[in-house]
Amino acid sequence: MMDNNIDYQTLIDELRAQSAIDLIALAFVQTSQLDYVLKWQYASGNINNRYKRVVLQSGKGIAGLVYKSGKPMYIKDITDNIITDLYNYPIVVSEDLKRLVAFPIFEGQQDKVKGVILLGNRDTKTSELKDYQHVYTLFLKQISASGFNGVSW
């Protein structure tokens, strides 16, 4: 569950303003009837608000895959790498992303994923993996006092 003492929207707005990243989005785990789902709750640089309607099951979509595996996902060029069924990746389609990385956010020292941060660009030339890793590191520093942490690449 997310920490209510952190202003996530301001944090991701500031991180995006300091980088060449087009979109930063945060999805957090929520309990559903019999399972857990992930919802994109915060976004900076979004071109529309469709992300708010996306609900992902564990293992589905980018956030669901990162949540289930607990490992980052890097896609250097969507047109070359992405699974052919873009329907299962609604944030990629709705935000017109071409390059992205998604990192898990862990709670405390546990290995339990509580959320996912997505960093993306609408072209394949702007940001490299090291740029995404740098922003992720800055994000983790800001939230570390709250008991959240991340994963090393």
From TrEMBL:
<protein>
    <submittedName>
        <fullName>GAF domain-containing protein</fullName>
    </submittedName>
</protein>
<dbReference type="InterPro" id="IPR029016">
    <property type="entry name" value="GAF-like_dom_sf"/>
</dbReference>
